[in-house]
Amino acid sequence: MDIDDDRVIIDDFSQESNPYIQFSGQQAHLADIFFNTSAAPVRRVKSKNDENSFNTDFLIPKYRLQPPLSARNISNAPNFVSGSQIPSDTQTFSLNGLKPVSAIPEKFRCIFSQFPFFNLIQSKVFDDVLFTDKSIVVSAPTGSGKTVIFELAIIRLLMKNEQVKTVYMGPVKALCSEKCREWKEKFAYLGLTCCELTSDTEGNEYTIIKNSDIILTTPEKWDKLTRCWSTNEGLFQLVKLFLIDEVHLLNCETRGPTLEAVVSRMKMLQTTGSKKMADKMRFMAVSATIPNADDIGKWLSYDDVLAISVKVGDEMRPVKLKKVVLSYPCSENWTQFRFDMSLNYKISNVIQKHSEGKPTLVFCSTRNGVIETARVIGKENEASMRVEHKQKWFITSNTIKDAKLKEFIKCGVGFHHAGLDLSDRQQMEALFGNGELPILVATSTLAMGVNLPAHLVVIKSTFKYQGGTMCEYTESEILQMIGRAGRPQFDVSATAVIMTKYNLKLKYENLIGGTQLIESYLHKHLIEHLNAEIVLRTISNVGVLLIWIRSTFLYVRVLKHPKLYGIQGGLAKDALESKLLDICVRDINTLVQNEIILMGEDGFDLNPTQSGRLMARYCLAFETMKLFIKSTSDASINDLVNLVASCSEFSDITLRTSEKKILNTLNKDKQQASIRFPMEGKIKTREMKINCLIQASLGNICVQDSGLNQDVLKIMRLSQRISKCLADFVFASRNDYKLVLNAVLLSKCLRAQLWENSYSVAKQLDKIGVVLATHLVRAGLTSFKKIANTNPRELEMILNRHPPFGNQILKSVGNLPNYQIEIEEAKPKLNSTQITITLKLTNIQYIAENSTFSPINCFLLIGNAENQIVFKQKITNNALMQSGQWTRKIDVEKCKKGNLLHIHVINEQLVGVDINMTFHPTNNELDDHLLAQFDFSTITPTKSSKNQINQTNPILVDLTESPDQTRRQCNHLCANKSTCLHLCCKEGVKIKTKRKFGSDESSAKQTRLDLVEEFQKNSTNFANNQNKRLSEKFIPSIGIDEPKIQNQYDEPVFSLKFDYSNAFSSDENTPPEIQVHQEQNVEMSGNQTTSTINEE
């Protein structure tokens, strides 16, 4: 027969049940060439010269030649001979237009050892990739071997013998992990090291980059890393090759702007850095079939070097894909949920028609939708199952943990979503990947993660639940799900079915036909990225702003389709640039108004503020920073938890109906542990859910739901970043004592995942988890000090561990910082005094000898009675480790509301090592104006009584009467109070009556005179006891705080403050603060004493 351009002649074996055909002798290498690269039908003919031998000609479409199957699939082929086993006497074989692996230098051929020829797509760009430095954009179907193009580009760098770095940017962490494992094995022979940098990466990222040749990361992670360009400029200058996988992610409204901003930044930094790059960075981008790949090519081009764009249609796909869009009616009265539910009863017919009895993957938008769809399919599938299949799946179901999955797997149907236990998810992936499980129902996240190709892919509904509302899938998500159809090692063809509404049929037909344009969404997140570039100094003035705009994909698309971006059409290029500049200037003015950036007096220069730097450093949204700016001066920890839960970074967290019962139990429950700050009413919003889960995590409350546990991991990771930014922001820009204190505490608590007053401090130690920490709490070991004082053998008995576990625990405790504060007061001045604070690290020698690293960083915070910060300082490891102490002199100004200082040493990471104390300096000039300003008319005088004064604190007086001696039943939930061992259950609890205050003016004046007289008498006694003489001009300053009543059973508490600093010389002790208290025992913290007051 004649031979055409694309084909050679062989017999037809397309009907063979086994795609692996056994060849003998010299034909084995030809089987390897074909079957190791494609699963298409094969024909062979006998030799024209010898009818007993096979001819070496094949009828192979060019696009069928693909990169190798995995080692697993090759090993499963019967009597299969690999390419490495080709006999030496075999004749040379070549195909039209296909580049052989031998075309690259010999030392690099090991990278492509599994196949001898590159496929048509790879061969088409071979010369441009391997022998030029031009940027390239390749648009080709999923599974067409685009990864090999990346590997060729890496080899191009190696051929130039340059010590440079390569960055691979994938859309999701799972894909980065997969590529990292694959390339570690491939490039190890060439001496290249690969590293994965995602949100799961631990350790110093910049050290990892320095020690690696190929960095695999996501857009969000690389965005965060490059925002610190100025401190690591030399490191980033080494990046010469930038690989972008799935570049059609640009069309995603939430993640596309980050990808666009990062790539534009990498282009800008080459010309705006202090060391301009001599060689331009090369960009390689691949995507699914898109019509405007040329636009992406223009975006990645330089002024002097244009990028190459290569577009390949579905005809080059290794497995031919049939795409079907099925539309269904949807009543105007139907919600999207109801329409989604109606599709459940139509899926079985779709599977029966298109699956051909091969594995089917069904994508649903929600977890509940996955379970309900699996239930309906399983019910219909059960009736047609054979007995042997039922027995097989019954045995398999015994290894499943989830009850519903165990039930459905008996019917031959599995489901997969992030809420499943990890072992169940892995088992579903293994069963479906091996072809044993016929039907798997999963959420759309599976398409972006694990690679599980199927013969049939069904997308049930094109809407998903996100941010509390139903919205359509992005084009990227649809293409990614469709891309799972087709198994090159098993299938010749595959099918993808989209089930949607009638009015959306045309839209999705255009999408799957490759006619859906890729657009930019940078303008919707422009304000955040403008701030980041200003902080990075890629934009330093309004003049540079236009240069940055021209480096974006937004600029390319606005020139072609301005109306889509709210700009009038038909304008010239200069006018369009002016419109874009106006949009940017508008956002810059918004940043200036909120003091996030500063504009020069000439309106030209742009400079970041501390707020802007923090916003860029922590990658936070502008709306989140506005919440920080509006935070109140006396915000409590509860208020700040509410603030964190309201941030826009949690917009993709959803509140599911099935979760409300569990969340309401966590919020309020008398029968079991609940959260620290219960919320009013039921859990109804996303913010309430986030708040509840944050508090549950900090309180070590177990959440009995695997789906919620997955949400907790994400919420805690985001909340740690948000709270750290909040703490840094208020610490740097606010002078409100309570706000700064609570923000720093909350940041530390979220990092340690414990409340600041938690008993489970041991959870922070190595090898101690929640369970062992609970054992220690039950044993009364609720602090590091108590643990350190416990015998190691006793610890092992409590924790049920063998020696030397107890010694290891004690060593870990010994490595924790042990702070100590010393305060010295200098001679007081008229309205201020000077104190010297010394912070010591008492166990510095032990830490230096036994620990490689100890979290010593801490905050020193001093606040006064007026909610103002007297002093604040962050003290680093180096400052304390050099000499073991840190000293600072501090001037303390006079405070009208009292002299008491609150001093806090707060470790940045650890709970349970902080110091909280109070100090009362002698810095007030004594006068009577405070007493004169106080209104005593609201106080009813009590009957005169003589009080016995304790000499250790002679200035405490009791002005109250004894309360009524009545009793009430206690609040304990004991079943039988008469037999209970609680004393309060037997005798009851004393009820304290609420005090009444009168308004008799004359009585109030008499009370004032009595107080002054009593004070002067007690002050004289105090001076006599100390052998000191009071000044003749001694006039006290007295202030009485408003009475504090927490509930109806509490008695009012008065605080009288007497200032007598003129009464003593600087070397004399100052009497403690005067309190008028109705309780018998009065405790005073810091330098105050404890006194007992008895009525005479």
From TrEMBL:
Reaction(s) the record says it catalyses: Couples ATP hydrolysis with the unwinding of duplex DNA by translocating in the 3'-5' direction; ATP + H2O = ADP + phosphate + H(+)
UniProt domain Helicase C-terminal: residue ranges: 346-534
Entries under InterPro entries matching the protein: DEAD/DEAH_box_helicase_dom (IPR011545), Helicase_ATP-bd (IPR014001), Helicase_C-like (IPR001650), Meiotic_Crossover_Helicase (IPR052247), P-loop_NTPase (IPR027417), Sec63-dom (IPR004179), WH-like_DNA-bd_sf (IPR036388), WH_MER3 (IPR057842)
Gene3D superfamilies in alphabetical order: P-loop containing nucleotide triphosphate hydrolases (3.40.50.300), Sec63 N-terminal domain-like domain (1.10.3380.10), Winged helix-like DNA-binding domain superfamily/Winged helix DNA-binding domain (1.10.10.10)
Protein name per the record: DNA 3'-5' helicase
EC number of the protein: 5.6.2.4
Cross-referenced SMART domains: DEXDc, HELICc, Sec63
GO terms of molecular function: 3'-5' DNA helicase activity; ATP binding; hydrolase activity; nucleic acid binding
Domain Helicase ATP-binding: 127-308
GO biological process: reciprocal meiotic recombination
Region Disordered, annotated ranges: 1077-1096
Similarity section: Belongs to the helicase family. SKI2 subfamily.
Key words of the record: ATP-binding, Helicase, Hydrolase, Isomerase, Meiosis, Nucleotide-binding
